[in-house]
UniProtKB/TrEMBL annotation:
Keywords: Transcription, Transcription regulation. The keyword Disulfide bond does not apply. It comes from Corynebacterium glutamicum (strain R). Pfam families: TetR_C_11. Residues 108-183 form the Tetracyclin repressor-like C-terminal domain. This is Tetracyclin repressor-like C-terminal domain-containing protein.
Length: 202
């Protein structure tokens, strides 16, 4: 065998196949059809082996498809107060917070599937949500270090409360999260939560 670069065995990987499989999965979800490997294979034209080489389980694939287009990190501007950074992120331009390609319809579908299938919910949490909490939690810790909030604040519970105020408007009230009324109520709830965390003035 001649010296030089070794020859790659097997067929070259189709670089577009990942996006085709993800798009096929989203198409099935958006049509409110049952999501299965068989349906994804038929919709995408990919083989079962190709699907499983890329995702360890159907739930991982569903979670990936629902998260496609969303920002992987939630960055907080800390040039001012931490509170101002949270307000800019959570109540500013939603495309900055979520990503320009992440639609509210996909957000709705993600919530529907997560609520109806605990396994999808667990995969989505461990693969995506926990990672997005990293920087907001660091920002809350910085608020502690700066003396902007009390030292005894449970920052995990605080972040849950802030997100909860937003999700309640969407999930329970059934409101459009982009509407003025919805964002106004969520902002008022945020102010109450933050006021409860602030250090007492002497």
């Amino acid at each position: 065998m001649p010296e030089g670069k070794p020859r790659r065995l097997g067929r070259p990987r189709n670089e577009n196949l990942d996006s085709k499989i993800l798009q096929a999965t989203r198409n099935i979800i958006e049509k409110d059809e049952r999501v299965s490997i068989e349906a994804i294979v038929q919709e995408s034209g990919a083989s079962r082996a190709s699907v499983y080489r890329r995702w360890p389980s159907l739930n991982n694939l569903i979670a990936n498809a629902l998260d496609e287009g969303r920002k992987s990190e939630v960055l907080i501007d800390l040039s001012g107060t931490v509170k101002d950074g949270f307000i800019a992120m959570f109540f500013g331009d939603l495309s900055v917070a979520h990503g320009e390609d992440y639609t509210m319809e996909r957000f709705r579908k993600r919530m529907e599937l997560a609520m109806s299938d605990p396994k999808v919910q667990q995969v989505y949490w461990s693969s995506y949500v926990e990672k997005r909490r990293k920087y907001p939690l660091q920002a809350l810790q910085l608020a502690k270090d700066r003396g902007e909030i009390r030292e005894d604040v449970d920052i995990d519970a605080a972040l849950d409360s802030i997100y909860g105020a937003l999700y309640y408007q969407f999930l329970i009230r059934g409101q459009d999260i982009t509407s003025k009324d919805c964002r106004g109520r969520a902002r008022a709830a945020f102010e109450l939560i933050w006021r409860g965390m602030e250090t007492q003035e002497k």
